[in-house]
């Protein structure tokens, strides 16, 4: 690979990272705190690219120093480096969406392990309270008594279950990046199922006794299901 | 670079292609981006979309760590003198191996950063066995990983202790194995000596760029394979063997190898394998940071494929054995 091409691939990868971090699209792939590391990394890659890009048309055989023509048949970097173009193409051409119902349904058989949320929502039986899905699942596994008679609002996308009418309000949780995503699912009862991946707000109450263990998801008896827009960061 | 003087037409064409490679590649990419507007809907299957998301996620997550790794490794190459290293590490490699393992606590990064650092430590004259011990220990025993393990296994501090002990043990045992193999380990270490005659700053940048270009292609390949496993192999498939003690351990160990998760978040995935024994979960946590498809790919790039063919199986086997032993003892 020529030096100029090396510089080009570095610059494009740096641009991808910068573009993702500055537009906020990085939240589709990684957690929020990665934003500034990505910006710094993008700038560093552009800085690394500058030298070889500027020297792209200098003859490479004469310089000898900066060029690394050793032990790879004189080509400087291994052929595998061409693969660097792949993430660039994927980012710009496919621009992959956030994870949705496909992976959630695929992983539906897994048990939902939730740790105790750091901040608990203040519940008030007199009104509908928005509750994050992981907290709802945790409360159900905790015996469910704190949810008794409490109208809640759950937000997530729609994924389907095995039965012909089964559906879940779903969020994906990521620890580090989308590779370790796990679904949090709450089954919705008493409401016809919307189309897959539609974001919805579900109002309802916990069905007592459901979701008491990690093996089965809790259920909510829905009083209202409203389509809504996806939030900025879709992962919990 | 080939300095062919032959002027046959074919050579001349190839030469012209090489001379204008930048423009050709840039043109091809632009064409792809334009074509992508029409191509993208055709590629819109949920499987391909999920693969792309996971693939790009692994690359986006790993690249900053790899850049951190090549910067640290460039700093080691250029700023750290061999004398300083010799003073920090014990003279006898047998003792230096466990010291390197414990030193892994100090690098709170993921495994991608560790590979270029290890290579540059070797170029600085650190014994390969010692540097490889650091490579195995650093992603597994650093505080960030231990804290996330504690969060994922609430009320089970023995899991954190077991992970620390088993990972450190794996690193040290493999280190001693490398020491015993000595020169019979077929390792290729790239020659140092970029940019002689340039200023320190430029040499630093050239070294970092060189290391990055060498490692990143292998990282992309590993990410692609891991994303495919993530997308096309449902995790529930491994649940069928959860009840069997030995097969359960081997299955989760193999799974850790192919899914190639970040060591800082793999504990959450391990915790979700509720049907498996704690020892099997421990095997998942010990094998993953020490060896996975992404690391193996990067090690082929850094140390040669002949080396990786010996090193990779030994690390996996040692990690499984250590996890089984420590699991039986502590869990």
What does this structure look like?
The complex is a heterodimer of chains A (236) and B (331). With 236 residues, chain A is an alpha/beta fold. In chain A, 30% of the residues lie in helices and 18% in strands. Chain A has helices at 3-23, 35-54, 60-63, 85-94, 101-106, 133-141; strands at 129-130, 152-160, 167-173, 182-189, 199-206, 219-227. Chain A has a five-stranded mixed barrel with strand order 2-3-4-6-5. In chain A, helix 1 packs antiparallel against helix 2 and helix 1 crosses helix 4 (85-94). Chain B has 331 residues and is an all-alpha fold. Chain B has one domain (48-330). Helix content of chain B is 76%, strand content 0%. The chains are: A alpha/beta (236), B mainly alpha (331). At the A-B interface, helix 1, helix 2, helix 4 and helix 5 of A face helix 2, helix 3, helix 8, helix 10 and helix 12 of B.
Sum this structure up briefly:
The complex is a heterodimer of chains A (236) and B (331). Chain A is an alpha/beta fold.
């Amino acid at each position: 690979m020529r030096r100029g091409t090396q510089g080009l691939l570095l610059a494009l990868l740096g641009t991808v990272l910068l573009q993702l971090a500055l537009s906020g699209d990085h939240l589709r792939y990684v957690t929020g705190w990665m934003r500034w590391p990505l910006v710094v990394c993008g700038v560093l890659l552009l800085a690394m690219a500058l030298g070889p890009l500027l020297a792209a048309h200098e003859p490479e055989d004469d310089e000898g120093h900066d060029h690394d023509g050793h032990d790879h048949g004189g080509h400087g970097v291994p052929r595998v480096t061409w693969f660097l173009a792949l993430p660039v193409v994927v980012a710009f051409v496919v621009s992959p969406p956030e994870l949705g119902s496909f992976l959630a349904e695929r992983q539906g058989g897994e048990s939902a392990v939730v740790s105790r949320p750091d901040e608990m929502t203040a519940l008030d039986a007199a009104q509908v309270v928005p509750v994050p899905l992981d907290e709802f699942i945790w409360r159900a596994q905790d015996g469910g008594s704190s949810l008794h008679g409490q109208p809640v609002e759950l937000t997530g996308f729609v994924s389907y279950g095995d039965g012909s009418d089964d559906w879940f309000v779903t969020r994906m949780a990521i620890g580090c990046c989308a590779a370790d995503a796990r679904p949090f699912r709450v089954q919705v009862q008493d409401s016809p199922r919307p189309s897959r991946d539609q974001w919805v707000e579900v109002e309802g109450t916990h069905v007592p006794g459901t979701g008491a263990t990690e093996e089965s998801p809790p259920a909510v008896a829905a009083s209202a299901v409203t389509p809504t827009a996806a939030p900025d960061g879709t992962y919990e | 670079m080939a300095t062919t003087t032959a002027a046959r037409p074919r050579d001349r064409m190839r030469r012209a292609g090489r001379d204008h490679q930048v423009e050709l590649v840039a043109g091809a990419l632009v064409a792809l981006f334009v074509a992508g507007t029409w191509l993208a809907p055709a590629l819109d299957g949920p499987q391909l979309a999920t693969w792309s998301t996971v693939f790009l996620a692994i690359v986006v997550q790993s690249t900053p760590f790899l850049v951190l790794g090549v910067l640290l490794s460039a700093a080691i190459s250029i700023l750290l003198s061999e004398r300083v290293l010799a003073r920090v590490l014990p003279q006898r490699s047998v003792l230096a191996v466990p010291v390197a393992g414990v030193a892994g606590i100090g690098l709170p990064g993921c495994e991608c950063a560790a590979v270029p650092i290890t290579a540059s430590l070797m170029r600085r004259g650190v014994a390969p066995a010692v540097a490889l011990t650091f490579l195995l220990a650093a992603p597994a025993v650093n505080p960030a990983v231990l804290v996330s393990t504690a969060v994922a296994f609430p009320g089970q501090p023995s899991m954190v202790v077991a992970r620390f002990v088993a990972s450190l043990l794996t690193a040290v045992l493999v280190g001693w194995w490398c020491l015993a193999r000595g020169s019979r380990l077929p390792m290729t270490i790239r020659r140092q000596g970029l940019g002689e005659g340039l200023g320190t700053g430029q040499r630093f940048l050239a070294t970092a760029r060189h290391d990055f270009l060498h490692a990143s292609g292998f990282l992309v390949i590993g990410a692609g394979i891991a994303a495919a496993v993530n997308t096309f192999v449902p995790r529930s498939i491994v649940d069928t063997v959860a009840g069997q003690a030995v097969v359960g351990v081997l299955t989760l160990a193999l799974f850790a190898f192919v899914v190639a998760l970040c060591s800082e978040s793999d504990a959450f995935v391990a915790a979700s394998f509720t049907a498996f024994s704690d020892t099997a979960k421990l095997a998942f946590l010990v094998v993953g940071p020490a060896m996975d498809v992404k690391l193996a790919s990067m090690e082929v790039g850094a140390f040669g494929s002949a080396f990786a063919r010996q090193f990779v199986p030994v690390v996996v086997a040692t990690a499984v054995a250590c996890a089984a032993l420590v699991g039986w003892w502590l869990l």
